[in-house]
Amino acid sequence: MKKFQILLAALVAVVMTSCFKTEATVDVTVTKAGQPQAGVDVYKAVAHGDIGGGYYKENYKEAPVKTNAAGVAHFELKSPDDFAPSSVGANEAITVFFAVFDASERCLAYKALQVKTGEKNKPVTLELTESNE
């Protein structure tokens, strides 16, 4: 009986983790004067109809992803968090906002991007300019 309970618990764990499936990936490169910027926090928000604008930090609910030494922040868009379960496999596009903010929560760079299910390593660049400082 104990063996059955362990197998059942393992099965439930596998089913629960398979519910969150990576549907697309995006690589956000942050540059300044054409040079990659390492250690920059990049925020992501998916437009589900409740986002008021990509320029406002309060619309970005998730923790940021830091850029690596090459200035790239890698994002995995999953279902059901990012893609609605009904759109998974339907090759539908969603709008994803990416932004960088300063310590005062002022938007330094921002882009909205259409992402379809199945897209891998879709590139987007956020350019930090002198006028943004």
Architecture overview:
The protein has 133 residues and is mainly β. Helices cover 13% and strands 42% of the residues. The chain contains 1 helix and 8 strands, in the order H-E-E-E-E-E-E-E-E. The strands form 2 sheets. Strands 1, 2, 5 and 8 form a 4-stranded mixed sheet that branches. The N and C termini lie far apart (64 Å). The mean pLDDT is 82.
Strand content: 35-45%
Distance between the termini: 64 Å
Shape: elongated
Unreliable spans are none
How would you state the average pLDDT, rounded?
82
Task: Assign the structural class, choosing from mainly alpha, mainly beta, alpha/beta, alpha+beta, or little secondary structure.
Answer: mainly beta
| C-alpha Rg (nearest Å) | 18 Å
Q: How is the main sheet built?
A: 4 strands, mixed
Helicity, as a percent range:
10-25%
> What string gives the helices and strands in order?
HEEEEEEEE
